[in-house]
DNA sequence: AGCAATTACGATCTGCGTAAGAATA
DNA sequence: TATTCTTACGCAGATCGTAATTGCT
């Protein structure tokens, strides 16, 4: 196995291009980096560097090795985060939302949450759900998507309904039915949370929760 | 970052369940493992072990950490293989096949290959194509699938045709057309490579090659 | 001359083993 | 008593820094 300090040296060298700059960036001296390059080649049994008297570059294999090194470092660091976050999640619960409906509801219910339940009211992007759960940054994310992976599962929670009240003086009030597209571009007075019960027009959106196993 | 020896100790402990057995498996002594457990907890700032006077177990977080550890080790080892194989692939070419058509053709052409081109005549499974290419175990795999990932791309190569010759005394010879299903269960005399030109009945199969970028 | 890489030497650190101790079943 | 984990001490190996050397631009 390749030691972390060697991986870091290789990955940094790929960025910095010279041993001197690499050493500086890592708060080390050039000779240490020189040694590192040799040790890497020795351990892998492969030529990673093209050596000239006062000049050194990566071979093709070295380029690949640097990418691999960066990847291993990333996996290591993300692993640490995952462990730390999981430990947190043993003591507290992080709730997230990707759609506004559940957010309104949860903020309303917030007063009843125990101290160790935290809601991030920010709307998370759909794409980030899986990684946020796999890293244990969130315990539970409310969304309208169904997700099943090795580490994430979804449960159907309920339908979300959105209602719009048109008073009798509004120019569309005489219509027997009104579609959402007819309302496009209009301004609304938004109801307070306490008025959530009074629903008239339905908007299709099934709400699901995704949680880490 | 977590050092490899700590990861290995943790992953091994998760299998062995006691420090003594862990030490034995790693050809080390118990006290070293004890130190490892403490150093891990210290570096992560997280409790991984439940300690009793003469007994120690993993916490929930510890269980997860052990899985993460095993994963990091795996990524490291696969990375090393990938680098070594890539270095090989700079000097030689490994050809693979998942279907028999290209195999026959390639074995036929083998005599013309340069010394550094090697064909594995074994039929590889479809599922393994991606990983074999990503690990640089193969440079080129001939298959009838089209694969595009970050590291693998496919090129269309040509159509594969299979022919069956029925001589005039065969009981189906009088039919105006014969489907493959009619031939099910019958025995064949297989033609030698030199006879590949004489094709009569076509079998649909597009041949593609997949290669690592 | 100035910069970059290498070589050589010495010091520090750190991880390992041995030996002894404490607790349990 | 046998097993398991922990603590204490000393050593060996490995990595790092300093200083000196070589080679290019």
UniProtKB/TrEMBL annotation, chains A, B:
One of its GO terms (molecular function) is transcription cis-regulatory region binding. It comes from the Bacteria. The keyword Zinc-finger does not apply. Keywords: DNA-binding, Transcription, Transcription regulation. The keyword DNA-binding applies. InterPro entries: LysR_HTH_N, WH-like_DNA-bd_sf, WH_DNA-bd_sf. Residues 2-59 form the HTH lysR-type domain. Belongs to the LysR transcriptional regulatory family. This is LysR family transcriptional regulator. The lineage of its organism: Bacteria, Bacillati, Bacillota, Bacilli, Lactobacillales.
